[in-house]
User: What shape does this take?
Amino acid sequence: MNHIEPFQVQTLAAVLFALGIAVVLARRNLFLLLMGVELMLNAVNLSFLGFSRTFAGDASIAGQLTPVFIIAIAASEACVGLAMVICIFRGRDTLDSDAYADMKE
Assistant: This one.
């Protein structure tokens, strides 16, 4: 069986997190913004699991249980976020985030 080094796991997590940040900063579509946030949350999950395996071995439950809670929070965030996007879209007929700049106040 191939052994994966902790450096490889953390590098992959960093690349996924950087891609998520790039999507959030570069795109104006609200659906893509939510997808970028989800990508960042999954990168953090991968990092938690990598550190759990590296420092505590296979017996660590805390490092493996934390991503489960993050996934539950991300699912609820996606539901609420998509509901908000649908409600806003019905009023403005666009998904461009710049069109909602007047909602800041």
